[in-house]
Write a structure and sequence with these properties.
- The structure holds 2 protein chains of 2 kinds.
- Chain A is an all-alpha fold.
- Chain A contains 5 helices and 2 strands; from the N terminus they run ααββααα.
- In chain A, helix 2 crosses helix 5 and helix 4 packs across helix 5.
- The two termini of chain B are 12 Å apart.
- Classes of the chains: A mainly alpha, B mainly alpha.
Chain lengths: 141, 458
């Protein structure tokens, strides 16, 4: 680095760059928030979906599964599981856990009521209808 | 050790290493569950092991950052800490709260823990890395505020160096962005959007400032190169970190429902994200080559050089591998992400904390450097841990490529579980390599107990 490029120049690039790009990020966030109503399926955000999300969170499902590709990679992607399996399969699957098959990955039994299973399914249905730019690449997630 | 109050760093470092050991043990449990699915089930289900693994990672790094800051700030500001007592009190509060949280994860089902800790008052739990119960989250904020108050008061009244200012900006940023962990809207897209304001703006934003300043501090000390030169580098590196990293957040917005322009913005800016890490490597080697003295602590110099290289490989190269939107479309949420995450966290953050511990611990124990025998053991541990982490990353990458192929690209895509069975060999190899990592860590810990004639004074 030449002597013309001083420490205070470098410092100014840091503070200026950080502030500029943070403000740009905030501006893009505003634009994103304005665009979201067209993509995030909020019309279908019912009380039941909210309860389903609460169940999803308080059972720490993200600790094994991914949802829209984020989470743990131990168990299948569930962002599109509603489309892959349908509501009845999802409920039957949760009820029948754990499989107890020797050596196979196990899912805990959460003792959900029928109403809670419906909430769970509604949450997964809502999630599957978010516009995710055609991700995942196929139905297998 | 020039200032008495620097001694508060010691318990922080000891706790950090202890929690690091816990993190690795739970990592090995999870690694085994990948191939022996019912291992320890139902006592420790995978999701619980994973919470413990990732939360311990965050907590031990925070202990490491705090210990480092408590050591660094008095020396840089040339005055004692504002309140060493507060620093020690916060240490015990944080340690007990952290331990109780882990016990909570292990002792009761997560839903019960949520109920017991008031998650219904403000729902924040059950999101990746932010699984902590509400009282823990509040506790983290209180500890962080006390810590920042203590350091800020010290800096305000003392000499203000660039290294200490950058560190403070990084630490304040860490605390401020953590506040987004309290925001959890029902709208999943918004939830995920702002979740990244903690997760991404931490590890690819403000934490890089902490990383840069700690590395710069150690390099000033062990090379004797002029501070002006090192601080200029520091500013250029962190400027690049934030210029690329802030909009680089966009690479997480490709598939969560955010507008599709993020695919362009996220790709372009995250393609720039390796640059600061590359500069960090060049910086570290450059400074060591231009050194004006031979510091007796060879182990610390090795860790400092290793941090640059491994952060560049893990965060830079492995991040870039799957950051462009057309590639990420296939690799998102696969073992490739896991591969990147392991090497990036180890290279950037675990190693910089280990660099600080390596440099500082002997000083806290009243010597310039450890004995030759102790340093040899520590350097052997460095190589064991670092090489195993490279191999873990390579095995997970291989597993990920195969997974992408079988599950997403092949003409008849396999289901997730069928694809997992096909890649199990790589999971076994990862698990064995993980055992070598554990052995390396145990040797590292043992090196603290190796006596011998102290190396010459600095």
């Amino acid at each position: 680095m030449s002597s013309a490029f001083t420490k205070s120049t470098a410092r100014n690039i840091f503070y200026g760059g950080a502030v500029f790009f943070f403000l740009l990020f905030v501006a893009m966030t505003f634009d994103t928030m304005n665009t979201l109503p067209k993509r995030d399926n909020r019309a279908n955000l019912t009380e039941s979906v909210a309860r389903g999300k609460h169940i999803w969170e308080t059972r720490n499902c993200i600790g094994c599964h991914t949802l829209l590709g984020e989470g743990a990679y131990f168990a299948p992607e569930l962002g599109n599981v509603y489309k892959r399996r349908g509501p009845e399969f999802i409920k039957a699957w949760i009820k029948s856990q754990p499989t107890g098959a020797p050596g196979r990955r196990q899912m805990p039994q959460f003792h959900l009521t029928d109403a809670e299973l419906d909430d769970m399914v509604n949450f997964l249905k809502y999630t599957s209808e978010i516009n995710t730019a055609k991700w995942p690449p196929n139905i297998e997630g | 050790m020039q200032y008495k109050s620097q001694a508060v760093a010691k318990p922080y470092f000891i706790a950090a290493i202890g929690l690091f050991l816990g993190q690795i043990v739970f990592g090995l449990i999870m690694g085994l569950q990948y191939v022996v699915g019912d291992f320890l089930f139902p006592a420790i289900p995978f999701n619980v092991a994973r919470m413990v693994h990732t939360n311990l990672l965050i907590v031990w790094l925070l202990f490491g950052f705090m210990g480092s800051a408590y050591y660094l700030i008095p020396e840089e500001t040339e005055r004692e800490l504002h309140s060493p007592k507060l620093a020690l009190a916060l240490f015990w509060i944080f340690l007990v709260a952290g331990a109780l949280t882990i016990v909570g994860y292990l002792a009761v089902p997560y839903a019960t823990l949520a109920k017991l800790t008031g998650n219904d008052l403000l729902e924040t739990m059950g999101r990746e890395f932010l699984e902590q119960p509400l009282p823990t989250k509040v506790g983290i904020v209180i500890v962080a505020l006390g810590f920042l108050y203590n350091l800020s008061m010290t800096v305000l009244r003392g000499r203000k160096t660039s290294i200490s200012l950058v560190l403070m900006v990084g630490l304040w940023g860490l605390a401020i962005f953590f506040l987004f962990s309290f925001y959890n809207p029902t709208n999943l897209v918004k939830d995920k959007y702002y979740w990244w304001w903690v997760v991404h703006l931490w590890v690819e934003g403000v934490w890089e400032l902490i990383l840069g300043s700690l590395l710069a501090f150690v390099l000033v000390k062990v090379t004797g190169v002029d501070r002006e030169v090192i601080e200029k580098w520091l500013y250029v590196i962190i400027a690049m970190s934030l210029i690329s990293g802030l909009l680089g957040t966009g690479h997480h917005y490709f598939w969560i429902g955010a507008p599709e322009y993020w695919q362009w913005w996220g790709s372009v800016f995250s393609a720039l994200e390796p640059i600061p890490f590359f500069m960090m490597t060049v910086f570290a080697f450059n400074m060591v080559n231009r050194r004006r003295r031979e510091h007796p602590n060879k182990a610390a110099v090795l860790w400092a050089l290793g941090t640059g290289v491994m952060a560049f490989l893990g965060a830079g190269v492995w991040g870039f591998l799957h950051t462009l939107a057309p590639v990420n479309y296939y690799t998102h949420g696969t073992q490739i992400t896991a591969a990147h995450g392991h090497m990036a966290f180890y290279g950037a953050y675990a190693m910089v904390v280990l660099t600080m511990i390596s440099y500082v611990m002997p000083l806290l124990r009243g010597r310039a450097a450890n004995s030759r025998a102790a340093q040899l053991a520590e350097m052997a541990a460095f190589w064991m841990m670092t090489i195993s982490m490279v191999l873990i990353t390579l095995f997970l990458t291989a597993a990920g490529i195969l997974q992408v192929w079988l599950q997403r690209v092949a003409s008849t895509p396999m289901s997730f579980m069928a694809a997992q069975d096909q890649v199990s060999m790589f999971y076994w190899m990862r698990e064995f390599t993980g055992l070598v990592f554990l052995a390396g860590l145990l040797l590292y810990i043992a090196s603290f107990f190796i006596k011998g004639k102290d190396a010459a004074a600095a």
